[in-house]
Design a protein that fits this description.
The chain is mainly alpha-helical. About 80% of the residues lie in helices and about 0% in strands. It is built from 10 helices and no strands.
Length: about 210
């Protein structure tokens, strides 16, 4: 189980680092900025999770392998040959970013549910909140640092996919066991995220009409 979780979390870390570093490249940041966005996206949600659960210092400081993985992935993406190659294949590049972001979201949602259950026992509201914030927290910090509106507030059913995956993982945990519940929750998040992007699903937006 521990090896399964470690592999999942390293995959999610690398996927989110790609998402964050790519935004830094689009913003024409220097190497430090690209790495900061990559690391923030990859581990920021976990830091918020640990603060909510009262786990100090946060796991990224006690075990730096996740931060080091994010640094390595971001630095590789910064290499001129790498990002020039990706830029030439723009359609595939954007698809890869969407898939990597979806994988990272799903991995960290179910990881957050797992840690919530281990730390606080059965508490649906807490598990769903912690799972969701673990998945979306790093992206929120990334967008704020980059000067953008946080993605979860304006685009597609991003946070809703995280909530659905967290609920599924929590409810299936006592029925199927840990890793089947995590895999199903992960798959649900990825499926909803990709479907929302493909079909352009969005929640209703507030519309303010100006009176003449």
């Amino acid at each position: 189980m521990e090896l399964f979780v470690l592999i999942l979390e390293l995959i999610g870390t690398a996927a989110f680092a790609v998402s964050g570093a790519a935004l830094g490249l689009r913003k024409q940041m220097d190497l430090f900025g690209v790495i900061i966005l990559g690391v923030t996206t990859a581990v920021g949600g976990g830091v918020i999770r640990d603060i909510v659960l009262g786990s100090f210092p946060p796991a990224m400081f006690r075990d730096p392998k996740y931060a080091l993985c994010a640094i390595a992935v971001s630095a590789i993406l910064f290499l001129p040959r790498v990002h020039r190659t990706l830029a030439r294949h723009r359609r595939g590049y954007h698809l890869a970013l969407l898939i990597s972001d979806s994988i990272g979201l799903g991995v960290f949602v179910v990881s957050g549910v797992r840690i919530s259950l281990a730390c606080a026992g059965k508490n649906l509201f807490l598990a769903v909140f912690v799972g969701t914030i673990t998945g979306v927290g790093g992206g929120v910090i990334r967008d704020i640092l980059a000067g953008d509106m946080p993605f979860i507030l304006v685009r597609q059913v991003y946070a809703c996919a995280a909530i659905a995956g967290a609920i599924a993982c929590y409810l299936l945990w006592p029925l199927l066991g840990a890793w089947p519940a995590m895999l199903i929750g992960l798959a649900l998040v990825i499926a909803l995220r990709l479907a929302a992007a493909h079909y352009r699903w969005n929640l209703p937006r507030a519309e303010i009409s100006s009176e003449s």
